Amino acid sequence: MKLARILMTSAALLSLSFGAVQAKDVKKIGLAVANLQANFFNQIKQAVEAEAKTRGITVVTVDAKGDGPTQVNQIQDLLTQNIDALIYIPAGAAAATVPVKLAKAAGVPVINIDRNANGAPGDTFLATDSVASANAVCKHILEKAGGKGKMVMIHGQKGTTPEVDRTKGCMEAVKAYPDVKIVAEQWSNLWSQDEGFQIMQNMLQANPDISIVFAQADGLALGAAQAIKVAKPTQTITLGGFDGDTAALEALKNGVFDVTATQQTQKMGREAVDSAVKIVAGEKVPAVQLLDATLTTKDNVDGFIANHP
């Protein structure tokens, strides 16, 4: 009996020791970001690095600058650096599956943020519920425009998860307004302000009586607002964005555009690190983790400027 108790105690201690080792197993995380020119991705990067620092974890960050093949090469390199987990924001839809497959072949868990890889999802996917949030943004601008008028949509990068979901959410809202006609749509590559400006200029030239614009990112919305200002249309144009970028929130406060959906970027970064630690420790995490975004107008923007979620 005494020997049995000793064996049981030893087994328990081994079990506790093994659990403690597992819980501290993450020493280095690879962070592959789509494009650090975008404020949204920069906020996630900062949150990941801050959370990792509090846990004593090293983060190696690479920036694909919007190029899929570059990102594949970067992740191949990360996998040679003994990373324990990969936090991955795909740079595009075309090659998004390749890094996931490479990481899984190397036994490295993958935490996707914002964009998933069709056919090769990571171990978990963290994102905003873009369908619901885009629906809310579009409903707001449609109602503000009086439920009628000519509408255009400036899309994000074609085929990426947020582009697909934001299109779906907005189109669901448009269905309820039969007097709204979508007269033009165009896709961007980098979700950038310069693209928003150029696209909006072209749209206004082709359809000078546009009265409603949904830009699928705040960068695109700021560019569109600039093009509208230059064009000086006689009609009021209602403009909605998406993301809650820091510069865009200030612009929203100043009336540059009308509404956005503020994403919980800081929380995404923290949760990504937490998910990496849990997965490496053998814990189960949900396959999909969707966060709410908040419809943001001049009425409630100050709170997000002071403290971004």
TrEMBL record:
Superkingdom of this entry's organism? Answer: Bacteria
Give the main localization category: other
Residue ranges annotated as coiled coil are none
Q: Which InterPro entries match?
A: Peripla_BP_I, SBP_2_dom
Protein name per its UniProtKB record = Ribose transport system substrate-binding protein
Q: Keywords of this protein's UniProt record, alphabetized? A: Signal
GO molecular function annotation: carbohydrate binding
Residue ranges constituting the Periplasmic binding protein domain according to the UniProt record: 29-284
Q: Does the keyword Transport apply?
A: no
